[in-house]
Amino acid sequence: MSVPASQMWAVASYVIKQKLRGRKRYPLVLMLEPLFRCNLTCAGCGKIQYPAQILRKQLSVEACLKAVDECGAPIVSIPGGEPLMYPQIGELVDALVKRKKYVYLCTNALLLKEELEAGVFKPSKYLSFSIHMDGLRADHDEAVCRDGVYDTAVEGIREALRRGFRVTTNTTLFDGANPLRMREFFDEMMTLGVEGMMVSPGYSYSKAPDQEHFLRRSKTHGLFSAMLSNPKKQWKFNQSPLFLQFLMGKHDYECTPWGNPTFNLFGWQRPCYLLQEGYAESFQDLMENTRWENYGRKSGNEKCLDCMVHCGFEATAVDQTFSSWQGFRDTVVATLTGKL
Amino acid sequence: MTLEGWVPKLGEYLALAEVIDLAFDYRGNTTVVKVDGSEVEGYIFNRNRHVPEPFIQMFDLAGERPLKILYSEIQNIKFTGKDMAAGNSWIAWLERKEKEAAEKAPRRDKGME
């Protein structure tokens, strides 16, 4: 596993503090979406289909920082839309780094080289570019519905690494993903020199253009077992090993929908990053007035039955690490040996 | 299937609350017809019927700031704007790829002759 020790410590001390305070529900990663505009229209994405006046809008830096302070999570992930199209992205990241938040800037990297050359960002242990890479060249370009995107992203990764930035990748997998090609993809990313990789099955957004290729639970177990059951030593994953084991079917976790709360142009999204059932005006309103019992597998909510996405289950996996000796031991063993 | 262009006929079999739910789920602009006869066109991004005075929130076409309209002020909602989620960009992309591949294939055959 490749999460830096300082980040692991920040997350561990935060989780332990929450437990000592007796907080039943606490956020781990704030998903901050400053805009919905994007320069791609990926098949599996249900995030960007809005009328023009909404796509033109963006959050102010002040509104973003207010949300960060309200939420208090130690990690801030900035997806979107494409965050490099947000004009104040440099200012926002600077302010987050000053607050000692670990920032994952989730980008398709089409504008990355340009932004780096313009000096928009400064390397920091708190900032990681999380590059959207859904597989090798052909697979990735197909997933993002445009040829040439993989090569541009690789160029961006090289430039960021050359300039001393932390770089990770995030990969969403759909039905039909080939485990052998994915293993080649992991080799390729490690050869490029990224710090670590994040993988997750996709979620069947009702608004996504491609509705046929989302993974069902048993297929997810099969795919991730085939990919990860004999991991190469050089592979590094920037996520909880217990979450990866969950994807392989080794643990049966329940979703933690409040683990990755989402803030965007409309407010605090209920109940989670994936489902859009309304908006709360404040983080407190989200946490206190969302009917959490209606979500997760046990609830019987059909929208949750096949979901195994990181934003619901990684927080569960992290919580497991600090909830039992077995969870702690499993995490330490997997981290030290690299075996899943 | 898209609701684009739909003007709901409210009555015994279709309640306003259902139409509001559909409008909330619709990824396009709608026109809210108010009981006083006025109309507001925009994007409905929120609705809450679990409060004493149920309301919707929307950005009008200028997108300046969210408007709050009570359920009790709404007569009907027309699905007037383009449904932005109704596209089939992935299918269109696959078709384009197949067409490109088909165009390349005869050229290869010719080269081999």
Q: What do you see in this structure?
A:
The complex is a heterodimer of chains A (340) and B (113). Chain A has a single domain (5-337), classed as pyruvate-formate lyase- activating enzyme. Helices cover 39% and strands 14% of the residues of chain A. Chain A has 13 helices and 9 strands. In chain A, α3 packs parallel to α4 (89-98) and α8 packs across α9. The model of chain A has no long low-confidence stretch (mean pLDDT 93). Chain B has a domain at 16-86: SH3 type barrels (Roll). Helices cover 30% and strands 27% of the residues of chain B. Chain B has 2 helices and 5 strands. Chain B has helices at 16-25, 89-112; strands spanning 30-34, 39-48, 55-60, 66-70, 74-78.
Features of the shown structure:
heterodimer, A: 340 residues, alpha/beta, pyruvate-formate lyase- activating enzyme, nine-stranded mixed beta sheet, globular, B: 113 residues, alpha+beta, SH3 type barrels, five-stranded antiparallel beta sheet, 27% strand, elongated
Give a quick precis of the structure:
Chain A has 340 residues and is of the alpha/beta class. Chain A has one domain (5-337): Alpha-Beta Horseshoe (pyruvate-formate lyase- activating enzyme), CATH 3.80.30.10. Chain A contains 13 helices and 9 strands.
CATH class of the domain at 16-86 in chain B: Mainly Beta
Provide the CATH architecture of the domain at 16-86 in chain B. Answer: Roll
Biggest sheet layout of chain B? 5 strands, antiparallel
Q: Would you list the SSEs of chain A in sequence order as H and E?
A: HEHHEHEHEHHEHEHHEEEHHH
Strand composition percent of chain A: 5-15%
Largest sheet of chain A, in brief, is: 9 strands, mixed
The count of β-strands of chain A is 9
Please describe the topology of this protein:
The complex is a heterodimer of chains A (340) and B (113).
Chain A: H1 5-20, E1 29-32, H2 52-55, H3 61-71, E2 75-78, H4 89-98, E3 102-107, H5 112-117, E4 127-132, H6 137-143, H7 149-162, E5 166-173, H8 179-192, E6 196-201, H9 217-228, H10 241-247, E7 262-264, E8 267-271, E9 276-280, H11 283-289, H12 310-321, H13 325-337
Parallel strand pairs in A: 1-2, 1-7, 2-3, 3-4, 4-5, 5-6
Antiparallel strand pairs in A: 7-8, 8-9
Helix pairs in contact in A: 3-4, 8-9, 9-10, 10-12
Chain B: H1 16-25, E1 30-34, E2 39-48, E3 55-60, E4 66-70, E5 74-78, H2 89-112
Antiparallel strand pairs in B: 1-2, 1-5, 2-3, 3-4
